[in-house]
Amino acid sequence: MRISEAIRCTWTPQYSNEMLHQPLKSFKPYILRTFSTSISRKYPSPMATASTQNDEAVSTQHKSTQIVPKPIQVAKRLEKFKTTIFTQMSMLAIKHGAINLGQGFPNFDGPDFVKEAAIQSIKEGKNQYARGYGVPDLNSAVAARFKKDSGLEVDPEKEVTVTSGCTEAIAATMLGLINPGDEVILFAPFYDSYEATLSMAGAKIKGITLRPPDFSLPIDELKSAVSKNTRAILLNTPHNPTGKMFTRDELNVIASLCIENDVLVFADEVYDKLAFEMEHISIASLPGMYERTVTMNSLGKTFSLTGWKIGWAIAPPHLTWGVRQAHSYLTFATSTPMQYASATALRTPDSYYEELKRDYSAKKAILVEGLKEAGFTVYPSSGTYFVVVDHTPFGLDNDIAFCEYLIKEVGVVAIPTSVFYLNPEEGKNIVRFTFCKDEDTLRSAVQRMKEKLSKK
Ligand SMILES: Cc1ncc(COP(=O)(O)O)c(C=O)c1O
């Protein structure tokens, strides 16, 4: 075995089990320890060499042939990103037995009819590579649902690309349509993959901050930020983490600026079916916008199947071309049986979505009322399964300190939002809770907070 293979064999299990769940800063000594103890018996380790470099016992012949790998290596474009906050908080939750209202995945299962469709597809042998841009049945189902929801008729073969979750739709869109140096506008706070993916694409990011209490669009700031140099605006409605939904008036402002300056819109609409207080509007449906918009979505949130990672991007052919080019070399195709089952899911009657919203409205009421009774200032949330609150009544320095306190002393997990801002200071008073949990779990979490949190 070559040294590089030995390193890989010894490292990989440790990497996946432990390192992925720790902040990057803490990786280094860990790897060095692992490396030196596990490899040294078989191969002269660089660490051993380093620590014994004055030791006469180390032969000079060995030293000259040593390869000294750097323990952690990452490309500059990803250097600043740490382990995602969701992973960190979920691990802390397990350690302290805390109730996880942090990461946005349901603690209940998706509908049987969709799971049965997946099992059926597997049994029928739909198990080999799918067509790169999606199995025809799913492309058609996506196009049909989009027509019903937005009124837009799209060609399932030329304008729909099936991806591995919305995360891959986002990555394929950025990598397929953004050139290094292109300016892209983001609304902060933002879903964490946007900044990392834009960074991979080499984009120049301009942030516009949405501020509490209503997180409305700062129109003048946007007007002065958009110019002929702007390549795209990244829009997420309903919005994670705030639950804000962009109004028709706000979307009209964005649309007219985009048309005037020839700017693209990348619209992340994964929470479109979780719109409680107002109607969801796809910006692609506004006049003149379809030809400059990529609409991205996925199955996970609406069907409580976040682990399936089936998503899609809808765009006119001239933009779809770029998205598909990137998609072809990122994943090429996504899971075949899950795609067939997803087509079945998307053909579900409207009653499914109505019931989903009824269920989530009840959950939301439990959480929001409970948070208010516990003493938080709760900001209004119109969509998604998140609410954000001001934690400052409890006297902790910032959102991260508050979340750590909440996990360790109260036994509940929330997500600090400073990580969703270009300038973390802007999020230091705000934390996010999710209500995609069963009602008992929500009640227990609320009870803990009411009992153990005290205002300072
Ligand atoms: C705004 C937003 N976009 C995209 C995603 C990722 O979606 P998927 O799981 O389909 O990749 C999430 C998941 O939390 C999200 O909140």
UniProtKB/TrEMBL annotation:
Required cofactor(s): pyridoxal 5'-phosphate
Keywords: Aminotransferase, Pyridoxal phosphate, Transferase
InterPro entries: Aminotransferase_I/II_large (IPR004839), Kynurenine-oxoglutarate_AT (IPR051326), PyrdxlP-dep_Trfase (IPR015424), PyrdxlP-dep_Trfase_major (IPR015421), PyrdxlP-dep_Trfase_small (IPR015422)
Gene Ontology molecular-function annotations: kynurenine-oxoglutarate transaminase activity; pyridoxal phosphate binding
Disordered: annotated span: 43-64
CDD domains with a match to the protein in the record: AAT_like (cd00609)
GO cellular component: cytoplasm
Domain Aminotransferase class I/classII large, chain residue ranges per copy: 99-448
Biased composition (Polar residues): 48-64
Protein name: Aminotransferase class I/classII large domain-containing protein
